[in-house]
Design a protein that fits this description.
single chain; 93 residues; alpha+beta; Alpha-Beta Plaits; four-stranded antiparallel β-sheet; 35% helix
């Protein structure tokens, strides 16, 4: 099992749009081989900062996803909502 944290800072006023967009993205990746689950968390002390916590069967599955056209499209489609460059961390479990 591989756990990945994807971190995003959202433009003030775009939080609702980002949350809706996340729901659509999760629906799309649900079909990806090796995807297990994903949850969206918002920081209490900084409401425009989010963590997408995702679980994958293995590292290879996640890497295939981030190299996919779907991931590229998701990044481009949501870029106008972000106030900074997103990043991710991999947590091996």
């Amino acid at each position: 099992m591989l756990t990945v944290g994807l971190y995003y800072d959202v433009v003030p006023g775009k939080e609702g749009d980002f949350e809706k967009y996340f729901g659509a993205v999760v629906e799309a990746i649900r079909q990806k081989e090796g995807f297990v689950s994903a949850f969206l968390y918002r920081r209490v002390d900084k409401p425009g900062s989010y963590l997408i916590y995702s679980e994958w069967k293995d590292r290879d599955s996640f890497e295939k996803f981030i190299k996919s056209r779907d991931f590229s499209g998701a990044k481009e489609g949501g870029s106008d909502m972000l106030s900074g460059r997103p990043y991710h961390r991999i947590y091996n479990v």
